Amino acid sequence: MKISTLGFPSTEEAKLGKILPLAKNAAYTLQAFDASGVPDVLLVFGEVGAYQAQLTGLSGLPVQIGVVAKQPPEQAGYFHLPFPLVASRVLRVLDGLSGVGGIEPPSTPAQPEHTAITVTAEPAAIAAPIEGDTALQYRVLVVDDSLPMQKALALELEKLPATVHIDFAGSGEEALTMTEEQRYDFIFLDIMMPGIDGFEACTQMRKRPAMKKTPIIMLTAKTSPMDEVKGVIAGCSTYLTKPIVHEDFQKVMQRITKWVDNFSVRD
């Protein structure tokens, strides 16, 4: 599926470019919006009225047009992609539009040609359910500005004997926003990131009453005694060293999931 953007800030377009390769159910390609090719999906950032001339030129073409904003668009004929962009939510919306991954596409009445669609689903898993005890489900946040690291953690999490719902954040600031909107069973938090680093993000999370007992696993390229001290002060639960070693990861997960299953207050 070819996806183009209109009016996107460079930072948000870069974020979208990192999200699309995480898709498992379909291949999504980000391409420039110009006369050389018509995309399957056009994502408009903010108010569509400012781009009415460009949108009018797409009339009659098989293009699904969505608005990226905090609130659904008032104009008919556009679907809604909530802002801020969250990886699992973006991919769920796109999967729904393409009708893949067992997700029903948004219903569209016969008239008009384009129908206003509001996708109100909460952030959901981009990882497919795993065989095992389906009674066990975990919602996990992975905070790392490295796409390969995000993928490595997702692959390890898929090996847990449970259904794992994974959200991704590329910065400490984004993680703080996402944890305000969604409760997570546990969080992977990289130390070295641009902007707010992992120590500061962890400190701010622990100030929230609802997150005082949330397991936070810090990710570091190499653990030094000073890092461990700073992590303890910030409130992290444990460490994992990068690159991820399967045996070490699974041992940590056994401890973390056991605690979550026995002591965590879950929705």
Which overall shape is indicated by the principal axes computed on the Cα atoms?
elongated
Strand order of the largest sheet: 2-1-3-4-5-6
Beta-strand residue percentage? 15-25%
Radius of gyration: 20 Å
Give the SSE order as H and E letters: EHEEHEEHEEHEHEHEHEH
What is the fold-level CATH name, i.e. the topology of the largest domain? Rossmann fold
What is the helix content? Answer: 25-40%
* Class from secondary-structure proportions: alpha/beta
Through-space gap between termini: 35 Å
Number of strands: 11
Q: Low-confidence stretches at least 5 residues in length (pLDDT < 50)? A: 101-135
How many domains would you count in the coordinates? 2
Individual helix count:
8
**CATH homologous superfamily designation of the largest domain:** Response regulator
- Name the assembly state: single chain
CATH architect. name of the largest domain: 3-Layer(aba) Sandwich
Organism: Methylovulum psychrotolerans
Pfam families: Response_reg (PF00072)
Protein name: Response regulator
Keywords: Phosphoprotein, Two-component regulatory system
Structural account:
The protein has 267 residues and is an alpha/beta fold. The chain contains eight helices and eleven strands. It has two domains: 2-118, Rossmann fold (3-Layer(aba) Sandwich); 137-263, Response regulator (Rossmann fold). The protein has helices at 10-19, 52-56, 87-98, 147-157, 172-181, 198-206, 225-234, 246-263; strands spanning 2-6, 29-30, 41-45, 64-69, 79-82, 117-118, 137-143, 163-169, 186-190, 216-220, 238-241. The protein has a six-stranded parallel β-sheet, with helices on one face. Strands 8-7-9-10-11 form a five-stranded parallel β-sheet, with helices on both faces. The protein is elongated and about 60 Å long. Mean pLDDT is 80; it is low at 101-135.
